[in-house]
């Protein structure tokens, strides 16, 4: 597959069933998509950290692992990115186009019809990525495996097929962009996203970051100039294990 070629592939039957379930059965718990995608991104960082113990070159000079979330209200998109292990083309197909049949059968067997309980099963059975389609009608994944030269772009509307294309990607890791449905614009709001991270992902050990915009130079009441504060990525999760926190903080 050359850089100019785009390949269209069909989802496995089990994935189609799962997408249908996600979109039509878990709509009252929409915000779980961010919990699942942040969790996956953190796992990718953990995998790289583990592999780098025996092969430090995988870091390629960038050992500051993180998950980053950004929103664009004009484009109505949310992007979750990481600089973790990344995926090859074959890994993209196996991770995003198919599901282990045994795992899928178990997942469907354990469904209760209670949306709150069922949303907890998503991560347990490794199918959290597909929750993106609860709020998005188009999902684009750009990824490059640590140590590989080329990247891969995966794209789907969640309707039975997806496309794959070889791409140039500067850094390793994975970037997932959700093109939100028209009625899901609330998730393009940065404060809404921050609140979801605080609710579900505060305990994740990998820093989860959002961009804090630059504060321009201003003038104080006494006429004194207040210098500008440059924009920066800031961690919004406290990255402390839940069991070390006071019970009152977890209620």
TrEMBL record:
<dbReference type="InterPro" id="IPR001404">
    <property type="entry name" value="Hsp90_fam"/>
</dbReference>
<dbReference type="GO" id="GO:0051082">
    <property type="term" value="F:unfolded protein binding"/>
</dbReference>
<dbReference type="InterPro" id="IPR019805">
    <property type="entry name" value="Heat_shock_protein_90_CS"/>
</dbReference>
<dbReference type="GO" id="GO:0016887">
    <property type="term" value="F:ATP hydrolysis activity"/>
</dbReference>
<dbReference type="GO" id="GO:0005524">
    <property type="term" value="F:ATP binding"/>
</dbReference>
<keyword id="KW-0963">Cytoplasm</keyword>
<keyword id="KW-0547">Nucleotide-binding</keyword>
<dbReference type="GO" id="GO:0140662">
    <property type="term" value="F:ATP-dependent protein folding chaperone"/>
</dbReference>
<feature type="domain" description="Histidine kinase/HSP90-like ATPase">
    <location>
        <begin position="29"/>
        <end position="184"/>
    </location>
</feature>
<dbReference type="InterPro" id="IPR036890">
    <property type="entry name" value="HATPase_C_sf"/>
</dbReference>
<keyword id="KW-0067">ATP-binding</keyword>
<dbReference type="Pfam" id="PF13589">
    <property type="entry name" value="HATPase_c_3"/>
</dbReference>
<dbReference type="InterPro" id="IPR020575">
    <property type="entry name" value="Hsp90_N"/>
</dbReference>
<protein>
    <recommendedName>
        <fullName>Histidine kinase/HSP90-like ATPase domain-containing protein</fullName>
    </recommendedName>
</protein>
<keyword id="KW-0346">Stress response</keyword>
<dbReference type="GO" id="GO:0005737">
    <property type="term" value="C:cytoplasm"/>
</dbReference>
<comment type="similarity">
    <text>Belongs to the heat shock protein 90 family.</text>
</comment>
<dbReference type="InterPro" id="IPR003594">
    <property type="entry name" value="HATPase_dom"/>
</dbReference>
<keyword id="KW-0143">Chaperone</keyword>
């Amino acid at each position: 597959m050359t850089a100019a070629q785009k390949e269209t592939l069909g989802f496995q039957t089990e994935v189609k069933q799962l997408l249908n379930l996600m979109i039509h059965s878990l709509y009252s718990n929409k915000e779980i998509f961010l919990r699942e995608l942040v969790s996956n991104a953190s796992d990718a960082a953990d995998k790289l950290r583990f592999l780098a113990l025996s092969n430090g070159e995988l870091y390629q000079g960038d050992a500051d692992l993180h998950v980053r979330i950004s929103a664009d209200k004009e484009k109505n998109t949310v992007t979750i990115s990481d600089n973790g292990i990344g995926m090859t083309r074959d890994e993209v197909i196996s991770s995003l186009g198919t599901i282990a049949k045994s795992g899928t059968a178990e997942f469907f067997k354990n469904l209760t019809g209670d949306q709150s309980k069922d949303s907890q099963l998503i991560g347990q059975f490794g199918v959290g990525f597909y929750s993106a389609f609860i709020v998005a009608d188009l999902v684009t994944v750009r990824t490059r495996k640590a140590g590989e030269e080329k990247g891969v772009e995966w794209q789907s509307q969640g309707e039975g097929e997806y496309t794959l294309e070889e791409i140039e990607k500067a850094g390793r890791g994975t970037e997932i962009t959700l093109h939100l449905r028209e009625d899901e614009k609330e998730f393009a709001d940065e404060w809404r996203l921050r609140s979801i991270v605080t609710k579900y992902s505060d305990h994740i050990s990998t820093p989860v970051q959002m961009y804090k915009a630059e504060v321009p130079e201003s003038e104080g009441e006494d006429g004194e100039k207040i210098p500008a504060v440059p924009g920066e990525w800031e961690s919004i999760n406290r990255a402390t294990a839940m069991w070390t926190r006071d019970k009152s903080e977890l209620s």
